[in-house]
């Protein structure tokens, strides 16, 4: 494994690694060889099918989620079998990950790893963090969640109000990067006394929560008679635990799993070849194989994609009344494909992992869907500029900021040029990101800067279009955002072409273009 050899490697041997950092000898890699802890720790917590009238606290309400028959969507596609949804989004924290968050804390307490005054750290895509933070809030532990910038602001706000401290890492940082969630979590654990990393990627409590919880519930709900279960793979704990429970008690059941294009979890490995380097769906898919994922329990793998997943999530909400999240849409698209091989009377269950709350500003929003090409943009008013190109809009000439400059120099440059944003470029002129007034104020007021380098406040996430992008898309972006970056390709000899900044279109410049151009016959259409 790349991670385990890192101390003796040069960077060129391990492309995910930016620099070598000091590895704690007790730090367990998230991608060690998959294994199951059959006869050791943690202790078993057998399933008890009971519905209590009153719970001592909210943690006891985790699990026993309902199964709901799916009707309109399967019927519209001619599916012959009966399809059901296991509504994991109805857990108290809003996702299937409540199960493992609570279970990991319980098992850590029993083993003496966590006690009064402990700090619990967890690297996560958000949902496990919410489950852990929920347990910490009830039990009184301090909680620190390390998560990538990609994950939704709704997750961040939920974690904050639960009392968790949030550490964000760059989305592009690989799992072995010193800037990634694992290395950052490790560094925090070194510095904070009486702290422990739950480590969902290698923690046996993960898959056991699903073997003794989710999987056992399904067996009870269907009287040990299920023909297919479909569950997505992130850490792999859900499909591993469910798969083990079903294989042991309902051998005929086929276990189907999937991960997004751009992830490498599926088998056989050639399935993972893809030009996709980024996917919007959250909570499933990784660039490494987590320890808790046991491929032996999966009968068939599929690959999902954003283009199918998000519209299906919206269909589940609109047609079945299930207020679920983006990965639930991905699961449903795969379940519909896999269920085609089942006959009338067979039972197919799809696990819907999380709910709508985390995505109110994402796929729930028409604007978000349109900007990303998941919903069409229609020229209902016959605007003259609709199909014009981004490079046709006149913009101010901007003097970029060099990556070596300071925050003070960047502030002076913004002020002197009279703009709210400026590009930051490398010595070779390649676009690295932006510095904006909004981001500067936020970082400085939150004390989130590390030193005086402009790179500590660099904004890497912003809307970006090619020079031949239609203004229909530019107009859609500018309805919600203050500017759009326009880029082209700068050829580099003997190297991969680099992205080149061409211009930044602001709202004012766009408005000036569509209202002041010489189109006398189209004034009523702007």
UniProtKB/TrEMBL annotation:
One of its GO terms (cellular component) is cytoplasm. GO terms for molecular function: cystathionine beta-synthase activity; pyridoxal phosphate binding. Its cofactor is pyridoxal 5'-phosphate. Residues 394-453 form the CBS domain. CDD domains: CBS_like. InterPro entries: CBS_dom (IPR000644), CBS_dom_sf (IPR046342), Cys_Synth/Cystath_Beta-Synth (IPR050214), Cysta_beta_synth (IPR005857), P-phosphate_BS (IPR001216), TrpB-like_PALP (IPR001926), TrpB-like_PALP_sf (IPR036052). It catalyses: L-homocysteine + L-serine = L,L-cystathionine + H2O. The keyword Glycosyltransferase does not apply. Coiled coil: none annotated. Keywords: Amino-acid biosynthesis, CBS domain, Cysteine biosynthesis, Lyase, Pyridoxal phosphate. Pathway: Amino-acid biosynthesis; L-cysteine biosynthesis; L-cysteine from L-homocysteine and L-serine: step 1/2. The keyword Lyase applies. Its EC number is 4.2.1.22. It is an enzyme of class 4 (lyase). GO terms for biological process: cysteine biosynthetic process from serine; cysteine biosynthetic process via cystathionine. Hydro-lyase catalyzing the first step of the transsulfuration pathway, where the hydroxyl group of L-serine is displaced by L-homocysteine in a beta-replacement reaction to form L-cystathionine, the precursor of L-cysteine. This catabolic route allows the elimination of L-methionine and the toxic metabolite L-homocysteine. Also involved in the production of hydrogen sulfide, a gasotransmitter with signaling and cytoprotective effects on neurons. Belongs to the cysteine synthase/cystathionine beta-synthase family. This is Cystathionine beta-synthase. It comes from Nyssomyia neivai.
